[in-house]
Amino acid sequence: MFAAGLGNAEVAKQLRVSVRSVQRWRRASQETGDTGLRSKGSAARPKLSEELFAML
C-alpha cells in the first residue's frame, strides 16, 4: 500500500487500524525497510505464571 502511494488515512481505513499506527509503520518502513515492519511480538505481559508456563 505504501509502494502504491496510498495515504495514511486510506491505509488505516482499509486495514481498520488507527492513522497513528499507519504513521508509525510508514516511518519504520522508511527508516529500516521491510525489517522495520516485522512484528516484535506481544507487548503484553504473559498471562500465565512461570509455574503454569513450565507445566504447559
Nearest-angstrom radius of gyration?
16 Å
Name the average pLDDT: 87
Distance between the termini: 40 Å
| Shape field | elongated
Largest sheet geometry: none
From the helix content, strand content and strand pairing, which structural class follows? Answer: mainly alpha
State the helical fraction.
Answer: 40-55%
What is the overall number of helices?
A: 3
Strand content: under 5%
Number of strands: 0
Question: Order of helices and strands, N to C?
Answer: HHH
Q: Indicate the low-confidence ranges by residue numbers.
A: none
Keyphrases for this structure?
mainly alpha; 56 residues; 50% helix; single chain; 3 helices
Structure description:
With 56 residues, this protein is mainly α. The protein has a domain at 1-37. Helix content is 50%, strand content 0%. It contains 3 helices and no strands.
Q: Summary?
A:
With 56 residues, the protein is mainly α. The chain is built from three helices and no strands.
How does the SSE layout of this entry go?
Elements: H1 8-15, H2 19-32, H3 50-55
Helix pairs in contact: 1-2
